[in-house]
Amino acid sequence: MGRRTERRTRRRAGRAERSTPRGPYDAMGFPLDAGEPATVRLEGVRKVYGEGDAAVTALDGVTAHFAPGTFTAVMGLSGSGKSTFLRCAAGLDRASAGTVSLEGRDLGAMNETALTKLRRDRVGFLSERFTLPPALTVERITERITERTTAQDPDRNAERGADRNVERAGLTARVWHLPVQLLGGRQPTGASAAGGGGAGADLARALAARPAVLFADEPTGTLDTRAGAELLALLRQAVDEEGQTVIIATREPDAASCADRVLFLVDGRIADEMKAPTSEKIADRMTRPWHPAPHAGPRRGGSGRKGQAGQGGEGVQDAAGRAVA
Ligand SMILES: Nc1ncnc2c1ncn2[C@@H]1O[C@H](COP(=O)(O)OP(=O)(O)OP(=O)(O)O)[C@@H](O)[C@H]1O
């Protein structure tokens, strides 16, 4: 297919998608923001790891939309599917069923090369894992990003943008330090001092690249309280001042309270949604029961799950997995 034909086909597909009537509510009874633009859109997403008796359903029919310039926190017990949710939404893992789209582009329909390019250009992913070589300074990281973005788009004045972002991150005074020294991060277990970097370095990279959507998996998990608050403030700023879309996974009510809304995951399903969250409201919600999902039932052969709260079928459990009804 020629490029022009391909573009035309894509435009038509986009129009068809926009004109497809959607129900006003999703499977969980939450209203769908039909017609509103979404940076990230998950429709009926399932993710199954493994096969047969060993299969684990990590996501079980998730529908969620993320509008541009919004901050969402995904909460849930260990094993509820938060990381899988983020990885599928970011195009790092492919969904087993359903669709994930980023700025209107269906990730499932893209080949690896196109997906890698889209992720590189439009997506930032902040995880607890180390992704940078040891002893890289923030300045060097920023330089590399600047070189790359300038080469890709000389009109964008990436250099100034990268400088501004580093400044915004409050890192200017510290750019000569090793990444491990940034943001007061604690060393996660097993990380050597020289191999550090973690959130500070990843954050600098993510901010300098200015992605449309920034995912952060347990961003405050390895940080002390002050550093965690600093990091969350930066993410908030990315939303409020740069119009970026931020989606984090966290188990901490304080971290989630920085978001515009919280999605509660229970066994791979969205069990509840909270707008304008506060730490108190979230903590309160976590102690109340999750009602079984309407389409609940046995959903896997293996027993890979760590948390079982809200697993449908019988009884009602609270966020700690205790039976309350
Ligand atoms: N690569 C994998 N292979 C097999 N099972 C997996 C894989 N990744 C996750 N799982 C399983 O999928 C389920 C959801 O895991 P996931 O890591 O997404 O949950 P989580 O809420 O992020 O947990 P945590 O808070 O502990 O990080 C769990 O039962 C987990 O064991």
UniProtKB/TrEMBL annotation:
Compositionally biased tracts (Basic residues): 1-13
Sample GO molecular function, one term: ATP binding
Keyword field: ATP-binding, Nucleotide-binding
InterPro entries given in the database record: AAA+_ATPase, ABC_transporter-like_ATP-bd, ABC_transpr_LolD-like, P-loop_NTPase
Source organism (scientific name): Streptomyces iconiensis
Domain of life: Bacteria
Ranges where the record places region Disordered: 1-32, 280-325
Ranges of biased composition (kind: Gly residues): 299-315
Name of the featured protein: ATP-binding cassette domain-containing protein
Low complexity bias spans: 316-325
Domain ABC transporter, chain residue ranges per copy: 40-292
Pfam families reported in the protein's UniProt record: ABC_tran
SUPFAM superfamilies found in the cross-reference section: P-loop containing nucleoside triphosphate hydrolases (SSF52540)
